[in-house]
Amino acid sequence: MVACLIAPSQESGIDVENVERPGETIEVADRYFSCFESAALRALPVEAQHRRFFEYWTLKEAYIKARGLGLSLPLEQFSFHIEADRPVRISFDP
Fold first, then answer.
1. From the centroid of its chain, how far is CA 48?
2. Helix or strand run (H / E) with residue 79
């Protein structure tokens, strides 16, 4: 893994996830993701679920870090919508 970051006047960071690590991704999604994200994850073929889980996880983690509020922002109260393997929008519970 190689990363190069040049940002002299901005706070920046790099986050790396090991998407090959085993784990119970569906169970984690059911507990921490929005209902929409969990349903979208379950709708995928089993072989695509692990990768999509990490796409959701990385997006959610980046969002809460960018807001500077950490886990005080409940992960299940906002959803990322991914189409054609690209995030297209974020929605929020009322």
1. 15
2. strand 78-83
Asked if 80 and 59 touch (Cβ cutoff 8 Å), the reply is yes
Provide the β-strand partners of residue 82: 87
Of 78, 40, 72, 42, the residue nearest 59 (C-alpha): 78
Assign 24 a pLDDT band (cuts: 50, 70, 90). Answer: confident
What is the span of the domain harbouring residue 48?
Answer: 25-92
Q: What's the number of domains the chain is made of?
A: 1
| Residues comprising the chain, all counted | 94
Instruction: Please determine, for residue 31, whether its predicted confidence score (pLDDT) is greater than 90.
Output: yes
Query: Does the structure show a pLDDT above 90 at 5?
Result: no
